[in-house]
Structure formats: structure tokens, C-alpha cells
């Protein structure tokens, strides 16, 4: 129910709130972005909401969903049954001290973030608890952005870190966040709030390693093509191939990076299988580097997809280059001069069609993999479907990409001119790791190894491990 804009903006002239039937009333102090997004989520989850503003007449009620009451700060606190959110920046907390008595006995939720990392002073939540000693201050929801709150994906996958020194208040907020469709994690007392407040300041913490690996691979392949096709021919014969640098060289490096990165997605799974086979048990932790690598496969896969996508776009643009026009004209002129009427080479037609077809199919499968790595899509699949997509289709994408590269290379690797300055063609280098992975996968598919590995993964242990104390040893961290 939408209230007409309040006649009175004086906070101390409380007007009884109309009590409409429905869920519990939640109070929110502040009418900014977070308040708006939170009220959308609360209303969608069946709560009633009363928002407290310093000046309700200045806040356009249309920005809030139907049913939200817009009142003074004091009225919002009084109207809330138990839980009140402080959706204001922490530097303004002191302006709320006039509400101390009215907030006594209520749960006061602090949603603020830290302004910087490694602070020495107390956390915002600890400061708020000092200002409001009679309220149960709880730190929560700060890791969720206003945008994610509005998104309303009630899939329970989004974690909310919660801490408080008051167990009753914490329990109330844990329950509330579950009803809002989040996955609450109790991280202890209010002393944990400093870390919780700094959590949103980390920038893509799981992407650093994969991005660095992809960047270094790009530098390597770009550097290799620069030396082999530009620098050495220039020093040796004075050839000017520098025009290749902005586009052609980039488009040579990108597919190589995509291929190697995709191989890096499947290599740790093979290494884990080999370790388990060698150890004869799955109840031993993997080395830390392997654990970390296993946990970064999704990021590596998405980066491989990005490079493959860029390669596709670059390749489509190759014919738009001025250089492509000149090369075609020159070739046509030479052909006319030589009196050649038909330049059709059957073998080359097969080669280019096969190479393009494998590339398109490989990219399509890779796109499917990327889509299923989205939590909302992945969550809709059962375990068998997810394994089929991520492992079965993953190897299909790798095989198609290897075939695309082999058709591209054709018989070139067998010609002496493929090795100028004793440097092999780049596509051969890019094929090494993917071929190792594919051969490794085939070897592991041998029945004797598959049967043993399946037994190990279902809990069987070789004789040297079968001791009673092993029964409660920890399992491995990454799923393979
Ligand atoms: N936006 C986001 O994505 C997220 C925000 N947060 C946290 O939520 C809190 C609010 O953020 P957000 O909603 O984005 O900020 P906004 O600036 O959009 O809103 C803050 C609100 O605070 C109220 N307020 C109360 N007292 C004062 C005062 N003295 N001076 C200025 N404003 C005051 C104002 O409402 P009025 O004028 O009606 O009184 C204002 O609209 C912050 O602590 C932030 O760290 C946490 C996670 C995500
Ligand atoms: Fe290609």
C-alpha cells in the first residue's frame, strides 16, 4: 500500500503507521541506492518495509516498490517490528544518536563497506555498536551490491557474511537473509567485521593467476611471431614486415593462447588422476599448487573462450584489410602475366573448408561450455549433465580446436621453408600441450586404468593405505 506523501516532515510528530496484513515490518534508515534495492528484495520476499529519511518529502516515493512506507527516521524505527537496517554511510552514523532510545532492544544491521584495506582503527560495525549499546548490532549484506539485490536471483548461491556479538540478533538476520534467498555464512563475533567490511574491496581475487598466465602466453607467442616473421627477416634480408604487428601478429598469437589455455583447463584433472592412481587412494590431499590450479579451471576456460572469440572476429576482418586487397590484386596480376586462367587448387579448397568448419564447431562448443559455467545455468543441470557438458564437451572442444590447427598447418610442417632460422612454425608449438592432454586422456581411458581409477574415486584404497586411521583422513579439495 502506497502512503500519500506525509504531510508532516517533522521527525518528532509520529503518526501511527497503518498496519496492513502481511509479513513482518522491516525498517531501513536512509533512502539511497542500497535502501531502494533492499526494499525491492524485501517486498518481493513478503516483508513490509518502512523507510526512514531525514526529509521524506524530498524523496520520490515512485522509486520504491508499492507498499513501502516513507517516513521520518524515528517513525521508521518505531514502525519496524525488530530489524532496522542502517543504509547510510558510516561517517553519518553519529547523526543517528538521537534514535538511541528508540533503537534500544532492536536489531540494527550495519551494511557499510570499508573505505580502504588494512585499516588500523575499529570497524564501522564496532563503532556503530559503541554508539548504540542497547541495540543488537549485526554486520551483514555489505558484500551484496545494490544491483545484485535488485536482480532478485533467489537461487541461494549468493553468500552473505554475517557477524555479531549478540547471538539472538544474529539468528534473526541469518533467518532474514535465508528468506531473501541468500546463503548466509556465520563468521562469528563483531571482531570479524573488519575483514567482512574489507571483503568487497578485493578485485576479482580468483582471476589474478589465470589472467597472468594468459597474458604471459600471449607475450610469448606474440614475441615468437615477431622474432620469426618480422625481426629476423628484417635483419637478414631487409624485409619490411612491420605492418603485420597490429593485426596479423595478434591474430597469430590469439589462437595459440586459446588452445594452450584450453589445454591448461584439462591438464590438472589428468595430473590429479595420475596422482590418485600412483598413490592408490583418494584420501590424500593434492599438493597446494594442484589444488589451486584445479580451482582456477573455470577462469582459464573463460579466458580461452575470450581469446578464441577475439580470434574469430580478427579472422573475419582479415579480408577487410587494405593489405588483403593489395595482395589479391598482385597475385591476380602475376597470374595474368603468367597466362594462368584457373587458379583453383582442389586440395587447398578441402583444407580451408575443413579448417574453417572445425574452428566454427570448436568455438560453438566452447561457447556452450562458457554458458554452462554461469551459476544460474550450471545450477539447473544435475550432476551427470554438468559432468557431461564440462568434461565430455570440453574434450570435444579441445579436439576440434586441435583439428582446426592441424588443418591450418596441413603439410606445412614437413616443408623445409617452415623452419626459417631453425624456428618451427608457431602452430606446432601451440599444439604440444593440447596433444599431451588428449593422449593422456586416451591413455587414462584404457580399461585397466579406468576401472582402477573409478574404484579409487568410490573410496577403494590399495593395500598399503588400508589402515584404520585412514578412515577419517581428509578427502581431496578440488573435484576432478
Ligand atoms: N550501493 C551499494 O551497492 C552498496 C552500498 N552499501 C552500503 O550501504 C550504505 C548506503 O549506501 P548507498 O545507499 O549506496 O548510499 P546513498 O548515498 O545512495 O544513500 C545514503 C543515504 O543515507 C541517508 N543519510 C542519512 N543521514 C545522512 C547524512 N547525514 N548525510 C547524507 N546522507 C544521509 C540519505 O537518505 P535521506 O536523505 O533520505 O536521509 C541517503 O540517501 C553505505 O554504507 C554503503 O557502504 C553496501 C553494499 C552495496
Ligand atoms: Fe584459427
From TrEMBL:
Annotated Gene Ontology cellular component terms: endosome membrane; plasma membrane
Pyrroline-5-carboxylate reductase catalytic N-terminal domain ranges (all copies): 26-113
GO biological process, one term: iron ion transport
GO molecular function: cupric reductase (NADH) activity; ferric-chelate reductase (NADPH) activity; metal ion binding
Keyword Translocase: no
Transmembrane stretches, start-end: 203-224, 253-275, 354-374, 386-407, 427-449
Membrane topology (UniProt): Multi-pass membrane protein
Catalysed conversion reaction: 2 Cu(+) + NADP(+) + H(+) = 2 Cu(2+) + NADPH; 2 Fe(2+) + NADP(+) + H(+) = 2 Fe(3+) + NADPH
Compartments where located: Endosome membrane
Keywords: Copper, Endosome, FAD, Flavoprotein, Ion transport, Iron, Iron transport, Membrane, Metal-binding, Oxidoreductase, Transmembrane, Transmembrane helix, Transport
Ferric oxidoreductase domain mapped to chain residues: 256-398
Listed cofactors: FAD; heme b
PANTHER family: DUDULIN-RELATED (PTHR14239), METALLOREDUCTASE STEAP3 (PTHR14239:SF8)
UniProt family annotation: Belongs to the STEAP family.
Protein's name according to its UniProt entry: Metalloreductase STEAP3
Originating species: Larimichthys crocea
